């Protein structure tokens, strides 16, 4: 009896989403990790799986943990779920952050933002109105102290 399964979030999909979120081309990523573009393109298409060393370099490039990069959930037909390993808060944050950055409207809005500015906007949007007001007051006070 053959088990059928569907991958919810593959490494290939995550690599492509991270690359797009950072505004990199495949050539940029390949050069950063010491590969040719065609070799890296095979990782994004799922034709090849990167070595552990390459996964470590990719995690460093995108400033995520190897665990978050490799987290893949597989669903079997009998409603039994096997996760490798349980999703962490940081991996859920990464998924939310990637969805936020890769939405078409946000890609246009944040095209010229640095990664730090994009992170600031994303996490700021997760706060309550009161928390946002507190953060704004803190930033204003800090900015006034600068020469």
Overall description:
This protein has 147 residues and is mostly helical. The protein has 2 domains: 100 residues, 434 Repressor (Amino-terminal Domain) (Orthogonal Bundle); 35 residues. The chain has 9 helices and 3 strands, in the order E-H-H-H-H-H-E-E-H-H-H-H. Strands 1-2-3 form a 3-stranded antiparallel beta sheet, with no helix packed on it. Strand 2 and strand 3 form a beta hairpin. Helix 1 crosses helix 6 and helix 2 crosses helix 3. The termini are far apart. 14% of the residues are buried. The N terminus is likely disordered.
Number of strands: 3
What is the typical, i.e. mean, pLDDT?
79
Query: What number of structural domains do the residues give?
Result: 2
| CATH first level of the largest domain | Mainly Alpha
- CATH homology superfamily of the largest domain: lambda repressor-like DNA-binding domains
The main pleated sheet reads as: 3 strands, antiparallel
Write the layout of secondary structure elements.
Blueprint: E1 5-7, H1 11-21, H2 26-33, H3 37-45, H4 52-62, H5 66-70, E2 72-76, E3 81-84, H6 89-102, H7 104-109, H8 115-125, H9 129-145
Antiparallel strand pairs: 1-2, 2-3
Helix pairs in contact: 1-6, 2-3
